Amino acid sequence: MSTEGLLSGDLAFRNCTDTLSLVQVTDTHLTGTEKGQLLGMYTERSARAVIDAVLADEKADCFLVTGDIAADGQPTAYRQLETLLGDAVPSLWLPGNHDDISSQKDQYASHMKRRLRAQHWDVVMLETQVEGEVGGVLSANELEALKCAVDDARAANKALLIATHHPLRSLESAWLDEQSVKNASDALDIIKPMANQVALISGHVHQESDEVVNGVRMMTTPSTCVQFAPRSQNFALDEKDPGYRRLVLYPNARIETQVIRISDEENRPLLTSSGYH
Predict the structure, then answer these.
(1) For residues 223 and 242, is the Cβ–Cβ distance under 8 A?
(2) In total, how many domains does the chain have?
C-alpha cells in the first residue's frame, strides 16, 4: 500500500476571518458498498450519520479525514467517501494503514493537499503509513515536510496544526501503543522551537484523547464506526458512540475543540469481538 508522492500543494483560504473552523473525521473503514461491516457494524451507515450531522450542524471551512478511509484498500471506498462528504465543504485526506489510494491519486488530487493555509493558522498533513505494517513511521520526506511547515509558520507568525493517522504518543494501551509512530521523537524535535503554538490531531486509535506531551497538545478522535476501549492491554471494544471532532482555531494559537458523538441503536458493533485485520 505505497503512498509515494501522495500529498502535494496547498489549499488556501483567501478570506480574512480571524477563525478557522475544521472538522476531523477518521477511520471510516468503508468498503464501497452499503453492506460493508466492521465487527458487526455497518460502516457506511455510521459514516453517513456522522457526516450528515456535521453538514447539518457545523459551519466548517474544511473536513480533515485522517486515514483508514477504506476497510482494506477497496478502490470504491474513496468514491464512496467523496459521495458522503458532498462538495459543499472542501476536504483533505490522509491514508491510514488500511488504505491503498496511490493508484488513484490523480483522481483524488484535490483532497491530497499537503497544507491548508489560512490567516492565522497553517495545517500540515503528514503520512505515517508504512507498506505492509500496521504501525506508523514518518519517512525522511515527511519529516522534511514538517520542517518546512514549521519554518514557514514561524516566519509568518502563524500557529500550526499537524494531522497524522497514527498518533505520536502513548495512550497507555499496550496493543495500540505498539502501533504509534516509531520515530515520533524526530518529529517532536522539529516541533520544539514552536511547541506552544502547535497542536496535533490523529486517528487510528478509535477513541477520544487530549493531552499535552512535551509542550505539544495532542488529540485523537473517535472513529465514525467502532470504538476501542481506552487503556486496554489487549484488543477490546468500547460501548461509546461514533463521532467527530470540531476544532475552532483562533489567533494567538487558541483552540476550542469538542468531540460530538452520534447514536444509532440499530447499528452497533459486536462488543465480544476479539480483533480484526
Answers:
(1) yes
(2) 1
Residue 131 falls within a domain, yes or no? Answer: yes
The pLDDT tens digits along the chain (277 residues) read 444 579 999 999 876 678 999 999 999 999 999 999 999 999 999 999 999 999 999 999 999 999 999 999 999 999 999 999 999 999 999 999 999 988 888 899 999 999 999 999 999 999 999 988 999 999 999 999 999 999 999 999 999 999 999 999 999 999 999 999 999 999 999 999 999 999 999 999 999 999 999 899 999 999 999 999 999 999 999 999 999 999 999 999 999 999 999 999 999 999 988 887 6
For position 200, which CATH number holds? 3.60.21.10
The residue written with cell numbers 487510528 in the block is: 204
The verdict on residue 11 lying in a domain is no
Q: List the domain range (segments joined by +) for residue 237.
A: 17-261
Within-domain flag for 152? yes
Position 145 in a domain: yes
At 73, the amino acid letter reads G
Three-class secondary structure of residue 277 per DSSP: coil
pTM recorded for the entire structure: 0.96
Place of cell 458493533: 269
Question: What is the spatial distance between Cα 266 and Cα 252, in angstroms, rounded to a whole number?
Answer: 43
**Using CA atoms, how far apart are residues 241 and 262, in angstroms rounded to an integer?**
6
- The phi, psi pair for 184, rounded to 5°, reads -55, -35
